[in-house]
Amino acid sequence: MYSEVIFDVETKKLFGDIKGNDPGDLGVSIVSLYKRKIDEDYKEVKGNILSFWEKDFPEMWPIFQGVDRIIGYNSIGFDTPALKPYANFPFSKLPHFDIMLKVKEIFGRRIPMDAIAKETLDREKKETGLEAVYFWQKGDKESLERLRKYCEDDVIITRDIYDYVLKNGYLLFKDKWNTLQKVELDFSYPKTDSPEKQIGLF
Fold it and tell me: Which residues are in the YprB ribonuclease H-like domain (predicted)?
């Protein structure tokens, strides 16, 4: 049995609103996470989604501790440093698993989550990170609810991309030349030597 947390962070500001490029200066508006247990065959046994506003972060941190993997998309480069000012322990030292970096290791460049979701899951995000910041800044009840739903939807897409690789061993996306690419990946937990990872046109 494995314990996992899939998470996503939304911020209060955009990079254009701050000096420099440190995600820690953006301020975090909300964190959504999916906490679950999966069995040895990588089938989910139980799971539930939770969201935390800044005032609730003290209740959130224990959920991340003691799990086998903390899964995100661009989480090592963005979400984790964005949360650094709020954490009273070395959050970055926990077992993070960044899907975007796993794809980059094979394909050689960063691929947007939207591109993978569209071709792999036949799913498209309805709103953007820019709108998420706007929802926070607007601050009314309806906008904050839309922000929460946006963040939770990103978590579900991240989970489904991760699970697709666990089940099928590859992801699909179109590159900048609009060519469909198939990237073979192994997200299984270490047991024996994993099969060689490959990339090819699909």
Answer: 6-165
- Calpha distance 73→164 (Å, rounded): 14
More confident residue, 16 or 60: 60
Give the separation between CA 121 and CA 117, rounded to whole angstroms: 5
What is the pLDDT averaged over residues 178-195?
A: 81
Angle at 68 between CA 120 and CA 25, to 5 degrees: 75
Distance, in Å, from the CA atom of 200 to the CA atom of 10, rounded to the nearest integer, reads 34
**Going by C-beta distance under 8 Å and a sequence separation of 6 or more, which residues neighbour residue 53?**
29, 30
Q: What is the CA radius of gyration of the chain?
A: 17
Alpha-carbon distance of 119 to 64, in angstroms, equals 30
Higher pLDDT, 199 or 114: 114
What CA–CA distance (Å, rounded) separates 6 from 111?
Answer: 19
Query: Under a CB-based contact definition with an 8 Å cutoff, are residues 155 and 8 in contact?
Result: yes
Q: Give Cβ neighbours of residue 70 (< 8 Å, ≥ 6 apart).
A: 4, 5, 7, 64, 94, 95, 96, 97
pLDDT(164) > 90? yes
The pLDDT, as a whole number, for residue 86 is: 96
Domains of the chain: 2-168 (3.30.420.10)
Identity at 158, one-letter amino acid code: T
Within 10 A of 158 (CB to CB), how many other CB atoms are there? 25
Residue positions counted in the chain: 202
C-alpha–C-alpha distance, residues 144 and 20, integer Å: 27
Beta partners for residue 138, in sequence order: none
